Amino acid sequence: MAFRPLHDRVVVKRLEGEEKTKGGIIIPDTAKEKPQEGKVVSVGPGARDENGKLNPLDVKAGDRVLFGKWSGTEVKIDGDDLLIMKESDILGIVD
Question: Rounded mean pLDDT of 50-74?
């Protein structure tokens, strides 16, 4: 990828949502909600505190994460739909 986020920003690619309900009903594309789970593609070096010390991020490339429904800014890079968000917008890492 030709994009490197700055400071405490993280680039996330959304994972595909479910196409069927638990009961087996197929959900059309127009009715699907955007998934709130994604894979971290790249991370910035970290944020600086008031003393100028660099605080590294807790997430790393390859982590599966959960984030808020309206988190991040949607961008298209190299034909991929990605989200750029601050690390604080990430709710947690899925193991």
Answer: 90
3-state DSSP call for residue 69?
Answer: coil
Kindly tell me if the per-residue pLDDT of 84 is higher than 90.
yes
Q: What is the secondary structure of 59-84 as a DSSP string?
A: --TT-EEEE-TT-SEEEEETTEEEEE
The pTM of the whole model exceeds 0.90: no
Task: Say how many CA atoms lie within 13 Å of 21 toward its Cβ.
Answer: 7
CB atoms within 10 A of CB 87: 20
Task: Indicate the SS3 state at residue 31.
Answer: helix
pLDDT at 15 over 80: yes
Counts for the chain of helices (H) and strands (E), in that order: 0, 8
* Other beta carbons within 10 Å of 84: 20
Tell the residue number behind the tokens 């790393």, with chain if given: 60
Nearest to 1 by CA among 89, 61, 87, 67: 61
